[in-house]
Design a protein that fits this description.
With about 160 residues, the protein is of the alpha+beta class. The chain contains 3 helices and 7 strands. It has helices at about 5-10, 60-85, 110-125, and strands at about 30, 35-40, 45, 50, 90-100, 130-135, 145-155. Helix 2 (about 60-85) packs across helix 3 (about 110-125). The radius of gyration is 15 Å and the shape is globular.
Length: about 160
């Protein structure tokens, strides 16, 4: 039976995806003590990027915000893969978001709000976190957005 976090996902009309397989030599998530650290999660859906390009050029900020939400869902799947149950999340500690940006694009925080707002909607107060939103020249596979998440577990 799904726990309360997965029930909340369902209530929001969302499904926890399968863990995105690594694109290189790393693990999607690792646990160290009470913490789980995800690798950077791209907005992969069914094994591929739906959108590529730079935010502020080929990708609109609103599209990128939705992609950041997908990244956060993929991060939750990675957390579950090592924690076993999303209900073990005591809190999201930190989110780092990278936005492949056109030279004049400065709206990175609004883009990464997609990830932050999803975590808040799913986890409530446990989803409130510290965060960085960074503009970069290019991301793997020409992805517009990449998000990594660090969570603390209960009973670790």
């Amino acid at each position: 039976m799904a726990g309360s976090v997965e029930a909340k996902l369902a209530e929001l009309g969302l499904t926890l995806p399968d863990v995105v397989p690594p694109l290189a030599s790393y693990q999607p998530a690792v646990r160290s003590g009470a913490y789980v650290y995800t690798s950077g999660q791209l907005p992969m859906v069914d094994g591929k990027l739906a959108v590529t390009g730079k935010v502020g050029a080929e990708v609109t900020p609103d599209e990128a915000k939705e992609l950041a939400k997908t990244c956060a869902l993929n991060a939750l799947a990675a957390v579950k893969s090592v924690a076993g149950d999303l209900d073990r999340i005591a809190r999201v500690v930190k989110v780092v978001g990278f936005v492949a940006s056109a030279a004049d694009f400065t709206g990175q925080p609004a883009v990464i709000n997609g990830a932050s707002e999803l975590l808040g909607a799913v986890l409530g107060d446990k989803g409130v976190h510290a965060r960085s939103a960074v503009g970069v020249a290019v991301l793997p596979l020409d992805a517009p957005v990449e998000v990594e998440v660090q969570v603390e577990l209960v009973g670790a």
